[in-house]
Amino acid sequence: MKSNIEMAFLYLDNRDSKVSEKGVDWHLDHMFKVIIGISRVLKESNPQEYKRNINFSRAFVFTRNKIPRGKGKSPKSVLPPENIHPNDIKDQYEKAWKCWQETKTLPAKCNFIHPVFGQLNLRQARKFIKMHTQHHLDIINEIIVSST
């Protein structure tokens, strides 16, 4: 996954409106904001507040291990700015990678509340981050293939 992300940096300006309204730069920026944001919430969470819960949307998506396209709406906190600077994306990548590595040492009951999937423990949150990242890498790959 890391090599796919790094390869995408070569195509930051690529766009294809048939694949996505947004370009490669937007998808990368958004991916990194999500990784950084969820990692921060996990780190700051109180493991004692975690309560196991059943969520059918989560069960469906997590079982398929794939986020369906066009179904989600991102919170403003993880939306890229109007003008995305390549250096900002690269800085976020470094930070996102560091945050991802740090989640490996957090307590199992650290938690994050997702607007659709509900409260996720550390394992579930890490799985969501992987699925979300792959979801955007798939879109990025389609943009690159169709625009080159």
Number of strands: 2
> Could you name the CATH topology?
Four Helix Bundle (Hemerythrin (Met), subunit A)
Q: What would the average pLDDT be, to the nearest integer?
A: 96
The CATH architecture is: Up-down Bundle
Shape: globular
Task: Provide the helix percentage.
Answer: 40-55%
**Count of helical regions:** 5
Low-pLDDT regions: none
Give the end-to-end Cα distance, rounded to a whole number of Å: 21 Å
* Highest CATH level, the class: Mainly Alpha
Q: Beta-strand level of the residues, as a percent range?
A: 5-15%
Q: Record the strand order, biggest sheet.
A: 1-2
Radius of gyration: 15 Å
The H/E string reads HHHHEEH
Largest sheet: 2 strands, antiparallel
Structural class: mainly alpha
Could you say how many structural domains there are in total? 1
Explain this structure:
The structure is a single chain. By secondary structure, this protein is mostly helical. It is globular, with a radius of gyration of 15 Å. It has a single domain, classed as Four Helix Bundle (Hemerythrin (Met), subunit A), CATH 1.20.120. The protein has 5 helices and 2 strands; from the N terminus they run ααααββα. The model has no long low-confidence stretch (mean pLDDT 96). Strands 1-2 form a two-stranded antiparallel sheet. It has helices spanning 2-8, 24-44, 56-64, 86-103, 122-147; strands spanning 111-114, 118-121. Helices cover 55% and strands 5% of the residues. Helix 2 (24-44) runs parallel beside helix 4 and helix 2 (24-44) runs antiparallel to helix 5 (122-147). The chain starts with a helix and ends with a helix. A hairpin with a 3-residue loop joins strand 1 and strand 2.
